[in-house]
Design goal:
Radius of gyration: 20 Å
Largest sheet: 7 strands, mixed
Shape: globular
Order of helices and strands: HHEHHEHEHEHEHHHEEH
Number of helices: 11
Oligomer: single chain
Number of strands: 7
C-alpha cells in the first residue's frame, strides 16, 4: 500500500479527507492529521455497532453530534456508514451536526452539498438551545458529544434524555463546574475526613474532573441506562480520552438515584442537583 493511503479505511472518500484537511491536495498526511484520523476511526469502531443495532430494529437511524466543530466525526460516520445504506436514508436516517460557530456550520453545509451527503443537516445552536429547538425531531436514536467542554457535556446528556436516545456516546472535556463548587464549599466539607481527597488545589481540580464523570454515569443509570466507561485512545494522543457509552435498557433506577443523591450531599454539591437531575416520579 502506498504511503498516501495506508492509514485510510477502505471506501473512505479521498475528496472528503482533503476537504477536512486531513489529507493535503496531493494526498499526503502529516503526523497531526494521522493522529486525528486515528482517533475518529477509533471512535467509529465504538459507534458503528450502535448504528447497526438501531437500524436493524427500525430500518433507519438518526444521530445528533453536539459541539460538532468541523464535523469530522459526522462526515466520517456518514461516509463510512450512512451513505452505504441508501434504503435507510430513504427511510429517514440522518445526521444532525450542532455547533455554535456559524462559519463552521456554513462550511459544513457547503461540504455536505458538494459531496452529495443529503442526509446531513447542520444547526447553528448551542447544546442547551438544541434541547428545545423545533429544528430537531422529537426523538433521536444516537447522541454523541466529542470533547464538549465543561457543562456542554451535561447539556448533551440532557438533550439525549429529552430525546429518549437509545445510545449516548460522550468524551467529556474540561470539567470545571464541580471543581469550582468543591472549592467554594471546601471549609465546610473538611469536617469529613474524605474531603482530604480534594483539599489541595491540584487535587480539587483532578478530583472535580473525576467525580463529574462519576456523577454523570450515576445520572444515566438513574434514567435506566446501562453505562460503560473506557479509554478512547492511548494517553499519547489526548489527555481527555474518557469515553462514556450508555445504552437505554430500562434498568432499575432506585439504587443509582439514591447513590447520586448521597454523593452530592456528602461531597457538598447539593447545589448541583439540577445539573445532575433525576427522573421525575411517575
Amino acid at each position: 500500500m502506498s504511503e498516501k493511503t495506508h492509514d485510510i479505511r477502505p471506501g473512505q472518500s479521498i475528496e472528503l479527507l482533503k476537504a477536512l484537511h486531513i489529507l493535503t491536495r496531493d494526498g499526503k498526511m502529516n503526523q497531526d492529521s494521522r493522529r486525528k484520523l486515528k482517533q475518529v476511526y477509533h471512535l467509529f469502531q465504538f459507534i458503528e455497532p450502535l448504528l447497526k443495532d438501531v437500524q436493524a430494529q427500525r430500518g433507519a437511524v438518526t444521530l445528533a453530534d453536539h459541539g460538532a466543530g468541523k464535523s469530522y466525526l459526522g462526515f466520517i460516520l456518514y461516509d463510512l456508514f450512512f451513505k452505504e445504506q441508501p434504503e435507510a436514508l430513504k427511510n429517514g436516517s440522518h445526521i444532525y451536526g450542532i455547533e455554535t460557530r456559524e462559519e463552521l456550520v456554513k462550511s459544513s453545509e457547503e461540504l455536505a452539498k458538494r459531496l452529495g451527503f443529503g442526509g446531513m443537516s447542520f444547526l447553528n445552536l448551542s447544546v442547551a438551545e438544541s434541547i428545545t429547538s423545533d429544528k430537531l425531531p422529537a426523538s433521536i436514536d444516537v447522541v454523541t458529544a466529542l470533547h464538549a467542554c465543561n457543562t456542554a457535556t451535561d447539556d448533551a446528556i440532557h438533550f439525549a434524555l429529552e430525546k429518549k436516545a437509545k445510545y449516548i456516546v460522550v468524551v467529556p472535556c474540561c470539567q470545571a463546574e464541580v471543581a469550582s463548587v468543591l472549592r467554594k464549599n471546601k471549609a465546610k466539607a473538611l469536617a469529613d475526613p474524605l474531603a482530604e481527597i480534594w483539599r489541595h488545589p491540584l487535587h480539587t481540580r483532578e478530583f472535580g474532573s473525576q467525580i463529574t464523570n462519576v456523577l454523570r454515569c450515576l445520572q444515566l443509570e438513574a434514567h435506566g441506562y446501562q453505562v460503560s466507561v473506557t479509554e478512547l485512545v492511548g494517553w499519547e494522543h489526548s489527555m481527555k480520552n474518557e469515553l462514556i457509552i450508555a445504552q437505554h435498557k430500562n434498568l432499575p433506577t432506585r439504587k443509582p438515584a439514591e447513590r447520586l443523591t448521597e454523593m452530592l450531599e456528602r461531597i457538598g454539591l447539593q447545589e448541583l442537583k439540577d445539573r445532575f437531575f433525576l427522573p421525575q416520579p411517575a
